[in-house]
Amino acid sequence: MIPMPSIDPYLFEKIEVDGVPVHVKNWPNNVGCCIRIIFHVGARHDPKGKAGLAHLFEHLPFNGCADYHDHQTISRVNDDLFYGSLNAHTGFEQTCFHGWIPDLSRATEAITFLSSLVNRPLLDKDQFAREIGVIEQEIWKDFANGADVEFCKRVRRLLYGDHPFSEQARPYGWPDTINQITIGDCLDHHNQYYHRGNCEIVLVGNITSEMARQFLPPLTGVMSEGLGRAWPRIYECPGPLEKEVVISRARDLGLANTRNAQIRISRLCSVVDWSDATVWVAGSIIRERLFEIIRQEIGATYSPSFNHQKYSDHQFVTGLIVVDPSSVTRSRQAVRDSIDWLAEDSSEVEKLFKDKRARRIGELKAAERTAAQIARSAEEEIVTTGTKTLFREIEELEQLGREEVVRFAATELSEERLFWVIVEP
Q1: Could you say which DSSP state residue 67 is in?
Q2: Are strands 87-90 and 305-310 parallel, antiparallel or unpaired?
Q3: Which strands make up the sheet holding 315-323, listed edge to edge?
């Protein structure tokens, strides 16, 4: 049996610096310190008709900020102070600026730079127009043509209804909405969301809370006061507006010479009723059962995937298989059969449940974790439900009963609650 780690990597000391929550993890086997500056604003906060605003704004500070007036200067600072690690990303619920400060004797210098980056960006109109073009290219990497974009929009609306997530499939928006955003929109966005009441900071590395209090004020002390974070109400997760969408790439999207078919299921679930452990184990069991049915009865296919994403007000569960077009009907039934097999319970289910739970516990105990990985995981927890420690996650798995996993499959993954998308050649 793999022993429990002696130190919980996700047990943070939480302090405040100038009213900003700071999560500090002393991880002394790491050189320097990883920092993540999290603002609780993402794609779900974009104004109607201007999907992609949060993501566009995230790009802009890297083109120039107070005291560092252009991309070339910022790039040199990145190499000098952060060894090229400085970056940012936008999700549906957060925007995060992050990097690694290898030399803590220069921490104040690095923090002063980050303060200019997030607190005082220069919104140059020429660079603004260029970034619009950059993001348009980023969007079109994922879509073949306008029909493909409209299909994706339709799927999101059918799945999410009036939820903010229905407005975009990815945080970068759509080709039509990104061009509706103005510099004035970006200024309003920064004023509304980039303040100490909407910010949290994660520090992981060879650092202490006292050190954090010493070098963070150039960043936290100049932030505007702002209001506190507004948590969204818990989404009640109704069923999809339609049960199924079937589309042909050639007929409906104008895409010829495609070979495979895709079968995707999706379900929105409550963050209150189901633990991460329940959803992970259920998905793992269903995936293995489905793979065996396909291997024995259908033939060649890519390995099925079941993914689980957690947000502050709901969870998103999705499964995907890629199959030969001639086997779509049987493969779809195989997905349904795999879910029903778990929902009906049996001695085989009990055995597989124990195996998957033990595997997951072993993975969590044995995993090697870098400071960067710990910081990223902490960001994900902070954005959704607060911070959950490794020991607590293992405890949830150890206490998880088979009956809970079976009930999840029988209720949340019942036919009337699933949303099917079938994409044929």
Answers
A1: T
A2: unpaired
A3: 244-248, 419-424, 261-269, 315-323, 305-310
Contact 294, 331 (CB under 8 A): yes
Of 136, 20, 116, the C-alpha closest to 64 is 116
End-to-end, the C-alpha distance of the chain in Å comes to: 48
Q: What is the pLDDT of residues 352-378, one digit of tens each?
A: 999 999 999 999 999 989 999 999 999
- Give helix 390-399 / helix 347-366 axis angle, nearest 10°: 170
From 338, 79, 66, select the one nearest 218 (Cα to Cα): 66
pLDDT per residue over 82-121, tens digit each? 999 999 999 999 999 999 999 999 999 999 999 999 999 9
| Residue 284 CB burial class (10 angstroms; 0-12, 13-18, ≥19) | buried
pTM (global) more than 0.85: yes
CB 88 within 8 A of CB 60: no
Cα 294 off chain centre by: 30
Cα separation, 320 vs 316, in Å, equals: 13
